[in-house]
Amino acid sequence: MGSLTALGALLLILMIIVGGKQGISSFLSMVINFGILFFSIVLIAFHLPPIAVTIVASVILLSITIFWSSASDNASTTAFQASVMILIILIVIIIPIEYWARVGGFGLEDSEELEGLSMYVGISFTKLAISTAILSSLGAIAEASIAIASGLDEITIQHPKISSSQLFLDGIVIGKQIIGTAVNTLFFGFFGSSMGLFIWFYGLNYSFGDIINDKVFAAELIAIIISLIGVVLTIPGTTLMMSHRLKKIQDKEKSESGK
Amino acid sequence: MWTMAFKLKSRMTWIQVLIVVIFCLVAVFLTAHDDSLYSEPIFQVTKVTNGKVTKMSDEFHNVDYYHQQLLSGHITNGKYAGKHLKIQNAYSNSGAMDHQYRTNQKLFIVLHTSPKLHATVKDLKRDTPIIFLLALAVSLLFIILKFRGVTVISSIVINTILFWLAVKIDHHNNGAAVIPIFSILAVIFCIITLFLVMGWNRKMLVTLSAVISATAITILLTLLVFGVTHEKGMYYESMQYVTQLPKPLFLAEVLIGVLGAVMDEATDIVASLATLKQERPELSKLQVFNSGRQIGKSIMGPLINVLFFIFMAETLPMTLLYLKNGNTWKYSFSMNMSLGMTSSLISGIGIVLTVILSSLFAGLLIKGDER
């Protein structure tokens, strides 16, 4: 048995112990997310437009991550709508930034690994950098929107008469509570995944100017800041969706009771 | 009354938006005119002349186009400031290692003085877009989080400085002690971050002990699995940017990478259980533990996915390159994605263990009167 399989089995067992059925579905959602991610790369390799493939894949990935979590129907529907909205905003921000900063492709630091590979494959690596940045933000957006939507859903269950403007204020309060730690999740993930790069920079005496202009570093930093912006925007985004939804439900009840 | 409040609110929103726009523009302006801070020569492109285009194809039938371009412009800093130059550049449509340059872009160049002054392009100057994006993120944090934004940003800044210090110490040890160094760093990270989020109290200490023990057990379990499976299928040689022994570096990367998620989760669970115990002090230790498990099982899935996407997405370009170079799916996966997948699985184990340990510690250690 390979290490990967053994670790996977260990994770599955632990997840079942903690979550039972929910544990299995959480595990499966990760496996299927991997499948979709890999399939997207294969599609891009077959020259389908990278950004379009990424957008379609992202919507599917978000829906799997959100609807397979244990959030209530109301919460997960709201979280899904909000995260798709955030996804659209992020795409609008990321496309001009990537064309401006041109971080697509590989840097000098990659030279050794690229040895013997043909680099002229006819697929735009700038577009691929856009895909990478979008995909790396998906988990963070999904997590933040589920957390906020679940919190707000709890409030609407306990106070069904709450006004939508009051709910909006509550949402911002809940959002502030979760954001501090959500940002940490992102930044430590970033520190961990680019530790080798940082050691490389230090070892080869890169100056601050060298680092900030470095293609590989810039690519990673852009991806993480885009995720950060996504998480921050999730607070008003999810809250807006939830209060809108509540208003619609309340209006409907009002018109029904008026009849 | 309502409309007035609304007007006031919307006016404040407009002022905020205006401040953000000005802040970002200032950041862009400053970094667009910081050429004199660089010791490397910077070249401003003022005119681009397109040269000939060649069609290329490789042994794997990948078709690409190779373009020549002549960049005219002047040097903006250093000894040769103001000097006009023409530089040859070539780029491909895919642009994996090369770039098409346009007018108004600034480039770092390498100057050659013999036989006469000429230059080659090194790379694009990218500080302006990076600083712009940072400015945008910082201002959004302040607008949406208000004062809390200060805590979030200071926590990021402090942690970045500490991380850089740890990298420095690691380098001076030639990577011999990477795991001890980053384990100590991890503990310091936890203390500072949890202090900023929760303050110094019993709740924070419970969270801290849950985080540290969950992370430690995760690393031990990983080593155990590696021992049992003889690290079969671990392609350390495929690790990127490795300047020291890859295996300890990999473990240190995972250790730091999972820390944020584990803290996020432990904070959530301990804080909710403390509130619960305060509202209903009659709950037994076991009942508190079970409530913790209930909270934990709903957040663990999304949290694992956060790290999964961070670890996996960045492997995309290289995997694609492997696929386009006629490699099989399996080989492309093994050489590029398997380490990311391993990191995701180890992180997942850490996240699940945190559910158990933070519920356990909260059940044992949190009293009903604890605020």
Automatic annotation (TrEMBL), chain A:
Upper classification of the source organism reads: Bacteria, Bacillati, Bacillota, Bacilli, Lactobacillales
InterPro entries, per database record:
UCP031503_TM (IPR014564), YibE_F (IPR012507)
Identify the species of origin. Lentilactobacillus hilgardii (Lactobacillus hilgardii)
Tell me the protein's name: YibE/F family protein
Which residue windows are transmembrane per the record? Answer: 36-67, 79-97, 117-142, 178-201, 221-242
Q: Does the keyword Transmembrane helix apply?
A: yes
- The domain of life for this entry's organism is Bacteria
Keywords linked to the UniProt accession: Membrane, Transmembrane, Transmembrane helix
From TrEMBL, chain B:
Among InterPro entries, the record links this protein to: YibE_F
Q: What is this protein called?
A: YibE/F family protein
